[in-house]
């Protein structure tokens, strides 16, 4: 399978599934066997998984320390990671390591403890991100939650399992003009 084939099959391959494993730290994956799915995960000659989906949902993760290193040990092509499910953990922030996976198109972070809406900015550098979940986090209660996320991440097409409509985009743009000061004005005030 070529590198291009890996990218084309990103979410069609079964995931490397560490959900419901009671993991406290990312490194715990090294000592656990992934859950078996209906279809087995393919492996390279070196024994690494050939999937582009990693499920870590329903664990007790509070941070993503050593995430890149562990993922590199488990996946043959970690740079092709397209789907990460970190829902229902105890994450308090969006770790910058997630922004290093440039092929990421689906990211589930719902049911965590993310409190600062500004954390979403960290994901703006992901060119392929199309589906994001954040509901069930304290940030969901903040005024303008949906509008802020949609204007910060204009390429996403699904947010909190709902399609993003043209009307959603228009509402987000109006909200942005009314609530977010242009950077130039903020710089002048700082001087």
Number of alpha- plus pi-helical segments:
5
Q: Roughly what percent helix?
A: 10-25%
Unreliable segments of 5+ consecutive residues:
1-10
- CA radius of gyration is 18 Å
SSE string, helices as H and strands as E: HEEHEEEHEEHH
What is the distance, rounded to the nearest whole angstrom, between the alpha carbons of the first and last residues?
Answer: 56 Å
Shape: elongated
| Strand-residue proportion | 5-15%
What profile does the largest beta sheet have?
7 strands, mixed
- Spatial ordering of strands, largest sheet: 1-2-3-4-5-6-7
Mean pLDDT: 91
Structural class: alpha/beta
Number of strands: 7
Please provide a written account of the structure:
The chain is of the alpha/beta class and 191 residues long. Strand 5, helix 3 and strand 6 form a beta-alpha-beta unit. The chain is elongated and about 55 Å long.
Features:
7-stranded mixed sheet; single chain; alpha/beta; elongated; 5 helices; 191 residues
What secondary-structure arrangement, pairings included, does this model have?
Elements: H1 3-8, E1 16-17, E2 53-55, H2 67-74, E3 83-85, E4 106-108, E5 131-133, H3 145-152, E6 158-159, E7 162-163, H4 166-179, H5 183-190
Parallel strand pairs: 1-2, 2-3, 3-4, 4-5, 5-6
Antiparallel strand pairs: 6-7
Helix pairs in contact: 3-4
